[in-house]
Amino acid sequence: MWQRATWHECADELDQICRDFRAAYWGRRTGGKGWPRHPDDEAEMRQNSKEGIQLLRALATAVRSEQDFNLIPPARAVVGALKRAGATPADAPEVKRGGGYASVLERPAYKPLHLREALNKIVHADPRTAGYYVAPLDSAHDLLLYGENRGDAWFAAVSLLELINAIRVLPDAQIVAGVPTNP
């Protein structure tokens, strides 16, 4: 798509991609019955996933770069949950059973995941283990990511809904040839 010119437009586009993904997930073409999922819904989910990942990576890189040089204020918004000690890709079902990232924040093994660290996790996640959680009624849409940092494993549940809101709160910046510049 690449229709955006600013971070806020990028957040708006990501929001629409996520809405379309959720609609297809819950059975847009089967009247919301969901399963078995219509083949066109499956294809739409795959396409939205590809576009969303591409957009998330571009956005993560752009925002992190500005934060690295203190060109934008640090964002303290909680956009997910992070587990470090004993983290494995098998932590994903726990988030799904609980109904999303917020369900594990009360557990001692998990800590709040702030915007900057969530953007880092998006960039450094192992794509072979990534997953997602989608709740009914658009109440949750989480990325379930796993990776390692210098040999230390981590698992992150990143709320796309909260991440989009956190980006919209930042001062807007233009993205020119992949490089953000303040408007």
Fold and architecture overview:
There is one protein chain. With 183 residues, this protein is an alpha+beta fold. The chain has one domain (7-181). Helix content is 42%, strand content 21%. The strands form two sheets. The protein has a five-stranded antiparallel sheet with strand order 2-1-5-4-3, sandwiched between helices. The chain has a two-stranded antiparallel sheet with strand order 6-7. Helix 1 packs antiparallel against helix 2 and helix 1 (7-25) runs antiparallel to helix 5 (160-169). The two termini are 22 Å apart.
Number of domains: 1
Numbering strands along the chain, what is their spatial order in the largest sheet? Answer: 2-1-5-4-3
Helix percent reads 40-55%
Tell me the strand percentage band. 15-25%
The total count of strands amounts to 7
Evaluate the radius of gyration.
16 Å
Structural category is alpha+beta
Q: Strand-and-helix sequence, N→C?
A: HHEHEHEEEHEE
Oligomerization: single chain
What overall form do the CA principal axes indicate?
globular
